[in-house]
Amino acid sequence: MTPYQYGIVTLKDYDKYCYYAAGLPGISLTRLFAVSGLEDPGIVKNLELANTKKH
């Protein structure tokens, strides 16, 4: 077993980590807030922005 077997080594690893650690919870909370009325329901139409890459 190498020390980096389960760590973040590459930019691709970092992107994947960020998606699961922040992206999915953020998308879920946005949907929850929209359904509950705490947020404008139209915000759910822009969820594809959560998966855009700028590098």
UniProtKB/TrEMBL annotation:
GO-annotated biological processes: farnesyl diphosphate metabolic process
Molecular function GO terms recorded: squalene synthase [NAD(P)H] activity
Cellular component annotations (GO), alphabetically ordered: endoplasmic reticulum membrane
Protein name, entry field: 3487_t:CDS:1
Organism: Diversispora eburnea
